[in-house]
User: Which sequence fits this backbone?
């Protein structure tokens, strides 16, 4: 295991003497017992399975009958597909509302982060205005402020605005994040200036240049912002917990936590609700895995 | 000294001519229009609340009646509050376990997955998927699996002939179980970040070291690890900050119990402000946490700067 010769074309591969120099027939490499697969699979496969089991169990238990779940030890495999849990959840007066609330808040956050982030990021990247440097540094600094430091006064601000216990209290703070502004600014800086300058000198307005030339070129950065905004707003629990009172206004995450208390015996319903909560993010991840992973790494590596 | 006085009638040389100046001013106005919505939302909802929170931490406030200025009382009271001391202890234990374990496991898995191995994409996906599951969903799911009476985990232990465990309802285990759940969801993040970093380790450096007779572990120790050191520092910072701020999972699973064994600082802050309606006290606790986070970030920045210099020296 001390060489890298398994990598084709590596330096050691080319430099190793192959016995041709001695004039003897080329000796075949000594045969030793080899697994038909890399031994690392013996470590990775069980571990990956361990990571997958809770989610598999989530899916399985959501289609079990309550009798199957409630007996001890519980059934490991559902006898058939029982949709009682899903029927209960979707027939519940509140659950579809929570889903709609989550969807509204996340959709508004995604659209507005893209729009305001693009406008702000472009101004910081390409336009000159007094105080822009100070403003940029100030906004960068706000990324370091932990949520806990601001949550109590933000609640008070929302109360002053009359938004507590409405979706507005969730929407306003998530309209635009410094992260969106900065990520897009960095991306715009990397685009060649010439593309825009020609159009601008020809008399195009800044707004037109931005939306007809810059935005179409910025798909990767925009999808990164969209993916991360959706992930964080859809999954958020603490702020809805503070800002909302009546269960009609709950988001899915918040509803799910109270749901468990109310229907303690009906685990199939709770798990069906959980599947519905997890599914949108899971599907988004599986559909756009590359974008997802790139956006996660870009937060860390280029931040 | 001997310069001629500038004639008053001459226009200042640096000011652009009329139309250009007007264009500049219009440009600035457009720019402000572009940034204003972001500035209002971001600064309005961070700078104002941070200052407000500071004021609040010196007041007695129940969020309803007018607050009373009490000076350092909240902080003094925090210092003597056994519940806060326990919250700090719990948070530190959680952080001390979660951060090194998630980073270590993430690095080990990334090193294995970085070899040319079949199904590495599938493994990466399976390890990463829990990361996108919300803390609320994780909490509900694991409360179900780890239910002491009829959960699947105890059923499994029963089949293996082991005695049933209390898991989240056992004060001695609850915090450790929370760490385990966090590792389930957070390790994939470290794997993905490390995998991206390993792509950037220069192949020539590895080959040169190998030619010089370095063994694999030497390459790891002297080439790979130093090159990805900035990423390790980033992960250390990121994971520490998120561990110190853990809340959602605690709220969903244990609500700080049993017997306060999982009350973390943020849970304490939330409970004080929105349950007991002692918002000033909660704000003071939040400020203690905020300062701690700042110290962590600043400390790591120093380490990072020193490391950067060392790596530059090593590779150039």
Assistant:
């Amino acid at each position: 295991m001390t060489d890298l010769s398994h990598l084709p074309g590596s330096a050691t591969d080319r430099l190793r003497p192959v016995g041709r120099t001695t004039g003897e027939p080329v000796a075949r490499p000594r045969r030793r017992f080899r697994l038909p697969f890399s031994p690392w699979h013996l470590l990775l496969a069980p571990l990956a399975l361990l990571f997958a089991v809770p989610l598999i169990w989530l899916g399985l238990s959501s289609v079990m009958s309550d009798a199957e779940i409630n007996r001890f030890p519980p059934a490991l495999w559902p006898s058939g597909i029982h949709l009682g849990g899903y029927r209960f959840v979707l027939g519940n007066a509140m659950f579809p509302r929570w889903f709609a609330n989550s969807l509204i808040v996340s959709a508004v956050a995604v659209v507005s982060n893209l729009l305001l982030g693009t406008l702000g990021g472009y101004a910081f990247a390409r336009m000159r205005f007094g105080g822009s440097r100070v403003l940029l540094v100030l906004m960068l600094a706000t990324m370091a402020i932990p949520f806990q430091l601001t949550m109590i006064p933000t609640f008070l601000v929302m109360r002053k605005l009359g938004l507590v216990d409405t979706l507005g209290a969730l929407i306003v703070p998530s309209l635009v994040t410094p992260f969106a502004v900065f990520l897009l600014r960095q991306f715009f800086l990397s685009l060649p200036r010439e593309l825009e300058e020609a159009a601008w000198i020809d008399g195009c307005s800044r707004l037109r240049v931005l939306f007809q030339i810059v935005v179409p070129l910025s798909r990767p950065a925009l999808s990164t912002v969209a993916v991360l905004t959706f992930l964080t707003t859809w999954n958020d629990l603490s702020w809805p917990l503070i800002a909302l009172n009546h269960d009609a206004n709950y988001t899915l995450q918040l509803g799910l936590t109270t749901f468990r208390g109310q229907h303690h015996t009906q685990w199939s319903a709770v798990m069906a609700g959980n599947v519905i909560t997890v599914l949108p993010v899971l599907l988004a991840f599986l559909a756009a895995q590359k974008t997802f992973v790139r956006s996660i790494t870009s937060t860390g590596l280029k931040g | 000294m001997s310069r001629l006085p500038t004639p008053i009638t001459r226009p200042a040389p640096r000011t652009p001519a009329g139309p250009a100046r007007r264009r500049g001013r219009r440009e600035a106005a457009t720019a402000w229009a572009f940034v204003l919505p972001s500035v209002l939302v971001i600064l309005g909802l961070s700078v104002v609340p941070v200052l407000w929170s500071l004021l609040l931490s010196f007041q007695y406030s129940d969020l309803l009646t007018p607050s009373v200025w009490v000076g350092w009382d909240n902080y003094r009271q925090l210092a003597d509050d056994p519940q806060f001391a326990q919250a700090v202890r719990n948070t530190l234990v959680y952080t001390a376990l979660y951060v090194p374990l998630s980073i270590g496991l993430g690095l080990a898995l990334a090193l294995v997955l970085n070899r040319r191995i079949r199904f590495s994409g599938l493994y990466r996906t399976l390890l990463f998927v829990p990361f996108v599951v919300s803390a609320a969903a994780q909490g509900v799911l694991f409360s179900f699996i780890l239910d002491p009476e009829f959960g699947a985990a105890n059923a499994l232990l029963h089949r293996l002939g082991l005695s049933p465990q209390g898991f989240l309802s056992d004060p001695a285990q609850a915090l450790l179980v929370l760490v385990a759940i966090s590792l389930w969801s957070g390790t994939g993040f470290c794997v993905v970040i490390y995998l991206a970093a390993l792509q950037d380790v220069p192949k020539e450096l590895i080959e040169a070291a190998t030619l010089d007779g370095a063994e694999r572990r030497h390459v790891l120790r002297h080439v790979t690890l130093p090159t990805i050191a900035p990423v390790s520092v980033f992960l250390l910072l990121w994971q520490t900050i998120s561990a110190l701020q853990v809340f959602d999972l605690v709220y969903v699973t244990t609500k700080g119990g049993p017997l306060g064994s999982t009350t973390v600082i943020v849970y304490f802050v939330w409970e004080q402000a929105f349950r007991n309606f002692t918002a000033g006290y909660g704000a003071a606790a939040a400020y203690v946490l905020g300062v701690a986070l700042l110290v962590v970030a600043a400390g790591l920045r120093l380490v990072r700067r020193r490391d950067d210099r060392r790596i530059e020296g090593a590779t150039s």
Observations:
- The two ends of chain B are 50 Å apart (CA to CA).
